[in-house]
Amino acid sequence: EQEHANLRHALDYYSTSGSEQAVAALEMATALCRFWEIRGHWRAGLDRLDRALEAAPEAPHLLQARALSRAGILARVQGDLAGARRRLEAALHLFREQQDERGIGHTLNNLGVVARTEGRVEEAEACFRESWELQLR
Predict the structure, then answer these.
(1) Do the Cβ atoms of 87 and 71 come closer than 8 Å?
(2) Where are the alpha helices (DSSP H) in 78-120?
(3) pLDDT in tens, 51-93
(4) Angle subtended by helix axes 4-15 and 42-55, to nearest 10
(5) What are 11-58's pLDDT values in tens digits?
(6) How far apart are CA 59 and CA 42, in angstroms?
(7) pLDDT score, position 1
(8) 22 vs 59: CA distance, rounded Å
(9) How far apart are CA 49 and CA 77, in angstroms?
């Protein structure tokens, strides 16, 4: 928490310093998501993560998937269910493309939470079921 301002400045700097640094900023922002979630820095974290994603379109797809998945979580905890769904669906597509079963499972679980919150019980159940099956492997 004491270094949060410094971390924000570093992210802002690296997000605008060229492609290699932009990828480093995306890695850093992705790593900070759990901190932002726990400490309630949801809006600031999502803004920084979205900017890092935009600045690093050439980042490896697996890193993009992880970042999008975490951004979806930050959007969901703020009540932006449409934004959460959009980010999580994009993450799911990339995780499937990379055949990352763990990422697919976690993202499906989060999509299930969004669907349940929106009242789409059958969709939520399908997401939870597929996630569960992947987690058991």
Answers:
(1) yes
(2) 81-98, 101-117
(3) 999 999 999 999 999 999 999 999 999 999 999 999 999 999 9
(4) 20
(5) 776 666 667 788 988 998 999 989 889 998 899 899 989 999 999 999
(6) 23
(7) 67
(8) 8
(9) 15
Contacts of 11 by beta carbon, 8 Å cutoff, 6+ apart: 25, 28, 29, 32, 48, 51, 52
What confidence score (pLDDT) does residue 107 get?
Answer: 98
Which tokens go with 47? Answer: 């803004």
Quote the CA–CA distance of 121 and 38 in Å, as a whole number: 27
> In 3D, which of 3, 10, 15 has the Cα closest to residue 54?
15
Pull the structure tokens for residue 14.
Answer: 């690296």
- Residue-wise pLDDT for 101-110, tens only, equals 999 999 999 9
CA torsion, ordered 82, 83, 86, 88, to nearest 10 deg:
-110
Round to whole Å and give the CA distance between 94 and 64: 8
